[in-house]
Design goal:
This protein is mainly α. It has one domain. Helix content is 78%, strand content 0%. The protein has eleven helices and no strands. The longest helix is centred in the middle third of the chain and has 31 residues, at 112-142. The chain is globular and about 70 Å long.
């Protein structure tokens, strides 16, 4: 999950890096989409809990085989970086590749724009993850025995909003570099935005910290959704969640529009000319 922006920056120039990141994020979203439709069809809601356990074990084993197969292909065939860096920022990154990980984290925590993005992206995508976890229980509250229908709805949502949205926003970013477009609704925008404001700190460090915060908020909101739905009901719980997303939209307005990585590429490019 921390790789898309890093791999895109290493292999692609400044005019195509966001589109490349979008395709990388697309891969993770396609995995989520397939999981939404495969899981409820492989694991049925049996009365026998042991039978459910056997089907769950089978699903995990199939997933492990595919994952290790992909890992083998990457280790054997995927090169670490191209012979020639695709951008000036990557040339400079190569000169500072030995930067200590915890020193980079220290610098990121001192970066006001990065911290604001951590809060905004962490909360918004944490809510998204929490709803993905809780979708089944929310849907079954209104439509009992609708496990497969819930998976189909999640599939449609991920494909229509996530997959197509990532490619569209990646293309828009490369053309306009206007990162305050739909931040809460598109993970690729958040990934690229954080890499820009965190520069010259390594993209992998910035993205790893960001993903940790997203997962942390995902756990928090999963528990919160369960608690609020029991105490005040799903309707008022959704109003509170909508309010949190509106807050995220306001906080992102406080982030500086300065794009450090792009700025470095442009300055050095003009100097070279």
């Amino acid at each position: 999950m921390s790789l898309p922006s890093k791999v895109a920056a290493i292999w692609f120039g400044s005019k195509e890096v966001s589109t490349a990141c979008a395709f990388a994020v697309l891969g993770t979203q396609l995995g989520v989409a397939f999981g939404c439709i495969i899981s409820p069809n492989v694991i049925k809601n049996h009365d026998d809990i042991d039978l459910i356990g056997e089907e769950l074990f089978g699903l995990i084993m199939y997933n492990s085989i595919i994952t290790y197969g992909i890992c083998f292909l990457v280790v054997v065939f995927f090169e670490a970086r191209p012979p020639t860096p695709p951008s000036y920022s990557q040339i400079m990154a190569g000169q500072h590749r030995q930067t200590q990980y915890f020193n980079s984290l220290k610098q990121l925590v001192k970066n006001k724009d990065y911290v604001l993005l951590l809060i905004t992206i962490g909360i918004s995508n944490g809510i998204w993850n929490a709803f993905g976890i809780e979708l089944n229980s929310i849907y079954l509250n209104y439509f009992p025995n609708g496990e497969e229908d819930a998976g189909l709805l999640a599939l449609i949502a991920v494909i229509s909003g996530g997959c197509f949205g990532s490619i569209l926003f990646g293309f828009i970013l490369d053309k306009t570099h206007k990162f305050k477009f739909f931040l809460a609704g598109s993970l690729v925008v958040g990934f690229e935005y954080s890499a820009e404001v965190a520069y010259p700190q390594p993209e992998a460090t910035a993205l790893a910290f960001l993903n940790a915060v997203i997962l942390f908020f995902g756990l928090i909101f999963s528990v919160a959704i369960d608690f609020l739905s029991d105490v005040i009901g799903y309707f008022y719980m959704n109003i509170i969640i909508a309010g949190m997303l509106c807050l995220c939209s306001f906080v992102v307005l406080l982030v500086s529009p300065r794009l450090r990585r792009l700025e470095t590429n442009q300055i050095i490019s003009r100097a070279a000319e």
